[in-house]
Amino acid sequence: APPIAGPPNRNFRVFFCGYLIELEREWAESNRIEMEMGIPSNYRYMGRSYSDGGDSSGAFSDCNSDRSGEFPSYGSPTSSSSSSSGGGGLQRLLVACAADYSDEVVRGLISDLESPAATVESQRRAAMELRLLAKHNPENRLRIVAAGAVGPLVALLSHPDPLLQEHGVTAILNLSLCEENKTLIAAAGAIRPLVRALRTGTPAARENAACALVRLAQLDDLRAAIGRYGAIPPLVALLESSAPRGKKDAATALFTLLASRENKIRAVEAGIVRPLLDLMADPESGMVDKAAYVLHAVVEVAEGRAAAVEEYGVPVLVEMVETGTPRQKEIAVRSLFEICRESAIYRKMVAHEGAIPPLVALSQSGTKKAKEKVISPSVVIPPLSPTSAPSLLM
Alpha carbon of 123 to those of 150, 155, 161, 165, 382: distances in Å? Predict the structure, then answer.
């Protein structure tokens, strides 16, 4: 395709980009039902893989940039249909629209956000342009922050206008993709309003707030702070009741935050175990692996082990050991290991649920990690019959 000539002035650029954003949103809405009906196991969206193959790092790929109404990239399973509907051309226009902004223009956009006389509509346009600038261009992410945009964008996170809040959340997400920006975003007070947007925002704002918190939680010293500010309960709610993409974003955020022991306990108190078990027991959810990995993080604390047993998680885990994929069997055994490790009562319960035969089989044919857990003394579940596999008695 021939290069697109730059717009002659900023006003035209604002109108042009705003028009494209509206087309993008309309396209997203027209395809929303198809997207929410289910995602193939090898689906790729904005560079994110939802394949259930590999280890935990494969189960939880990063939350990437603004995905509100994003078009699938070329080569994705839906690229041909997107091209036929004009999606591919619009995506190229959006990328072109986000290129070649001067520092003066960026400062003007920030001024529009901060001006007491600015209308909501003009603030929407400015926030939308900054969001778009940071969407595809790493250099722009640094330039926008250097120009002083973080504070005004953080202020938008608490704005009563839902669309303006959504633009602010999404712009913060896009800026947080740059490692150098994360500390500055947190220092500007973004965590608390991101958590608020996670509870009360539009569906897109909630999903993108979850992704922004994932990015910030990659800094060790921010994980506990994010939990203290109340992120865990709305993430559990998102996991329980949102559309498929929201569930995946919530699971990714929770998996990251549960590296903190305090957050594990908060998650148990927020009722995380029941929705995780429901997802694990439903192959059609596309969330079996992700939910299983989050549950494993939960049962690493005593409160999580007790909740998993009380919510009848042992039968779900035993069935996964018996019928799951190799990776599912491995993570299920690791969770059973945690549950059995310090409780003879729980070991007897696992045995009563019929775990011995699939564990014996796994000790012979499972992955290396699964075999190591199976033959651990903690998973020796009395009473064992004389015919039980010798490897379980080691």
Answer: 15, 12, 10, 10, 66
CA distance 258 to 265: 9
DSSP secondary structure letters along 122-181: HHHHHHHHHHHHHHH-HHHHHHHHHTT-HHHHHHHTT-SSHHHHHHHHHHHHHHHTSHHH
Q: Which amino acid is at 373?
A: K
Which stretches in the chain have pLDDT values below 70?
1-101, 364-394
Q: How many angstroms separate the most distant Cα atoms in the chain?
A: 84
DSSP-derived secondary structure for 44-100: EETTEE----SSHHHHSPPP-S--TTPPPPTTSTTHHHHHHTTHHHHHHHHHHHTS-
pLDDT digits (tens, 9 = 90+) for 232-282: 999 999 999 888 989 999 999 999 999 999 999 999 999 999 999 999 999
pLDDT tens for residues 346-367?
Answer: 989 988 988 788 778 777 665 5
Q: How far apart are CA 3 and CA 382, in angstroms?
A: 72
* pTM for the structure as a whole: 0.74
Write out the two tokens for 235: 């993430």
Report how far residue 16's alpha carbon sits from residue 92's, in angstroms, rounded to the nearest whole number: 13
